[in-house]
Write a structure and sequence with these properties.
With 97 residues, the protein is an alpha+beta fold. The chain has one domain (16-64, 73-96). Helices cover 14% and strands 16% of the residues.
Length: 97
């Protein structure tokens, strides 16, 4: 349960990124929010239930202008992200109280 007043948004809420940062590792490109969401510097997100949200920067709209057959700059990152969340939870078990 979130100790903040007002409480942080739930992981399923559209404004989930507004939750307080409780662990930050900018050198590794990720932060853990109070609601259990891991946000990455590329704007991708890993939710507590293991679901992920692909990076959603405004520059991704430029992909619509990309010629057919040219790969985007981001590959699938879910397996690495899932490994990171496991490491986070093992090293910070109090984060998801």
């Amino acid at each position: 349960m979130c100790p903040h007043t007002p409480p942080c948004p739930a992981p399923s809420a559209p404004d989930r990124e507004a939750a307080h940062t409780i662990v930050s590792h900018p050198e590794q490109g990720w932060s853990l929010l109070c609601n259990g969401v891991v946000i990455f510097e590329d704007t991708g997100e890993l939710l507590p239930d293991g679901a992920f949200i692909a990076p959603h920067r405004p520059t991704d709209l430029a992909a619509l202008d990309r010629p057919v057959g040219v790969a985007p700059g981001h590959g699938w990152q879910a397996p690495a992200a899932l490994s990171v969340i496991g490491d986070i939870l093992r090293s910070h078990p109090r984060c998801l109280v």
